[in-house]
Amino acid sequence: MQQDKDPxxxxxxxxxxxxxxxxxxxxxxxxxxxxxxxxLSPIHNFWGWVKAKVDETGCKTFDEFQLTA
Length: 69
Fold this sequence. Notes:
- The chain is mainly alpha-helical.
- About 55% of the residues lie in helices and about 5% in strands.
- It has helices spanning about 5-10, 15-25, 40-55, 60-69; strands at about 1-5, 30.
- A two-stranded parallel sheet has the order 1-2.
């Protein structure tokens, strides 16, 4: 597990470092990576896949989508 430069991570930097030391964790702060980098967050790839699947249905509204389910 690695952490990007999300502002919330840096606000709690000392707490995170202390937790990592106490738990003997391999969590690292990576200063050169941008906040919310899709490279670090598999959920971004997942939502891209979900969007592609929804787009395949051709639905324009949520009501249309519900009818296909």
